[in-house]
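Anyone up for a design puzzle?
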């Protein structure tokens, strides 16, 4: 489902306060449901878990960047009914990220 540009602008402005908004939404389920319906209806986020578990209190080393296998990415792109490509990353732009380039865009799949 495509979004009007004003929704993208609203999300960019609200992004820096996302943790505060999450806390408020947890306490007000009606507002949470309304917000989800108005802004995120039809959105699905899929997390791919790691293939191992870290034990509690186990010392771990910082992993290097691990790219997602291209076959997995291709599978989800092919299965998506709609693709929305952004030329910038709204998360990095809204948060003022200095560590990664903002012009590395995002691909939304729906």
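Challenge accepted. My sequence:
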């Amino acid at each position: 489902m495509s979004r009007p540009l004003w929704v993208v602008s609203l999300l960019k402005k609200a992004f820096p306060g996302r943790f505060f908004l999450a806390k408020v939404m947890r306490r007000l389920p009606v507002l949470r449901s309304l917000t989800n319906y108005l802004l995120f209806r039809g959105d699905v986020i899929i997390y791919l878990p790691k293939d191992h578990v870290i034990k509690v209190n186990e010392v771990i080393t910082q992993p290097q960047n691990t790219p997602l296998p291209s076959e997995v990415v291709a599978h989800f792109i092919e299965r998506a009914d709609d693709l929305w490509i952004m030329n910038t990353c709204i998360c990095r732009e809204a948060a003022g990220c200095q560590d990664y380039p903002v012009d590395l865009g995002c691909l939304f799949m729906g």
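A detail worth pointing out: The longest strand covers residues 83-86.
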